[in-house]
Amino acid sequence: MLCVDQSGSMAASVGVFERVRGGSWRRCGRSGRRSSCSTRRLVDLTDQLHDPVEVLFGTQLGGGTDINRAVAYCQGLITRPANSIFILISDLYEGGIRQEMLRRVAAMTQAGVQVIVLLALSDEGAPFYDHENAAALAAMGVPAFACTPDAFPGLMAAAIERRDIAQWAERHQTT
Fold it and tell me: Are residues 91 and 10 in contact, defined by beta-carbon separation less than 8 angstroms?
């Protein structure tokens, strides 16, 4: 499951992560994919996955970020936690209820969901994100790091094989 923050602060990252949706995700050959945007207006874009570029560039939701609401929605879609990978692409600047977002992520990981957070990237590839939320997630054992679209297929392979994502990130010099 891929949950993409499309709030205003993520504008630069949307262009960078277009390649994630446009190429890398398809190459993973996974079925049952869902995409949800983490803003005050929450939209399930599963039925539009045949055109990933349109999903990222054609969907303008506006409003502030409510990661908690998006995580809650996605959490409700997970029926097989031990077989699920949840990837959140966000700058982690939460406009909703921070503690509830962290509690939901903790519950997902405890249920067996593999949770990975890919931090926002500028057009130059520099990460920008809420350091406090990234540290809180890391303290829970949830990897939160910047990953270029070119490295995304390797990340997905590691996640599907249930390898240690933190070690993978370190080996691939992600930030």
Answer: yes
